[in-house]
Fold this sequence. Notes:
There is one protein chain. The protein has 399 residues and is α/β, with parallel strands linked by helices. The protein folds into two domains: 6-172, Phosphoglycerate kinase, N-terminal domain (Rossmann fold), CATH 3.40.50; 187-386, Rossmann fold (3-Layer(aba) Sandwich), CATH 3.40.50.1260. It contains 15 helices and 17 strands. The protein has helices at residues 37-51, 79-86, 99-107, 123-126, 130-137, 156-160, 171-185, 204-213, 221-230, 245-258, 300-311, 332-347, 357-366, 380-386, 392-398, and strands spanning 17-21, 28-29, 32-33, 55-59, 90-93, 113-116, 142-145, 167-169, 191-195, 216-219, 261-263, 267-271, 282-285, 294-298, 315-319, 351-355, 374-376. The protein has a six-stranded parallel sheet with strand order 5-6-4-1-7-8, with helices on both faces. Strands 11-10-9-15-16-17 form a six-stranded parallel sheet, sandwiched between helices. Helix 1 packs across helix 2 (79-86). The longest helix is centred in the C-terminal third of the chain and has 16 residues, at 332-347. The chain is elongated and about 75 Å long. The N and C termini lie close together (10 Å).
Amino acid sequence: MSFKTLDDLPADLTGQVALVRVDLNLPMQEGRASDVTRVEAVKPTVLELSDRGAKVLLLAHFGRPKGQRHSTMSTSMVQGDVERVLDREIMFVPEVTGPVVEQALGIFRSGDIGLLDNVRFWPGEEANDPEFARGIAAVGDFYVNDAFSASHRAHASTEGLAHLLPAYAGRAMEAELKALDAALGNPARPVAAVVGGAKVSTKLDVLEQMVRKVQHLVIGGGMANTFLAARGVNVGKSLCEHDLAATANRIMDEADHAGCTVHLPYDVVVAKEFAANPASLRTCNVHEVAGDEMILDVGPQAVEALGDVLKTCRTLVWNGPMGAFETPPFDAATVALAKTAAALTQDGSLTSVAGGGDTVAALAHAGVAKDFTYVSTAGGAFLEWMEGKELPGVAALTK
């Protein structure tokens, strides 16, 4: 994967205007961001460009205004949070094109940082309108994309600008692309994929890609129940998409042809009601699930066997939990397998890349998020990458 990074820019950027696409779509509580992970991710890029003398203009969206101005969706809502993380003063500019932006740049000194308003206030953003993109590009000398999480959208600020100005990957984007390339682009084999979550229907494309690309596919969460049922196992009251039995069997057949081993649980944790530490909790073989029970986690024997599988692998891609991890004790399998993967990563024997909202939360819950090689906070973009789809914002950087 070939793309230019900040290393390809001159060391001295004094007076140059950098248009930097970042993801500042932060969760808010009482007027402040409840999580500033996305700001921390782009901090190295923004500060490096500023310290090298560039005038930095941040482009971002906030919420879904659908081409209309809404005061509650202005990026000014997160200005204070961005200033706190960067520890720099930032000028808010209430436009993205035209005289107001030009006037702001006129009073900027080298190294100053500006935050433009929500790019989605203008219909031209989501339409990827060339005229709108040209309007933004008019004030810039070069473009930097540091928003992998928004790069599965072909919008003016994620894709259009990359064709109008010299385009570079920011530090967060660079790290993300290198990690993804190591995980599935050009991985060390054998490769294992852990794919969990509630429904097979939401991850059909992922599963079909994985059976062609990996040597071991571990299926967990409610999805595993659909595969077990397709194999004739009575899963009781478990969450299960019985109508996808034929699809599940087809994926298993494709895996056989591709030389990919699919791992389904053979012991499971069940209960008659979905609640924390229920009285009816028990562990049993998958063939012993009663009609009034539901499977809520993978059992300890299966987890131990899966840990042994990971010990034979060089690369791991993880998306989705093994069980209903938000409700103890149904977090046990996710935590145990995550700790095994983290230990193998720290030993240097495994490259581990994980992503997706539930996955990030699950690994944080297990206390191992920092021990994986790379954890992507991108939801939709990470999933589309796993599905083998071209991400427009990334493709524009690599052409």
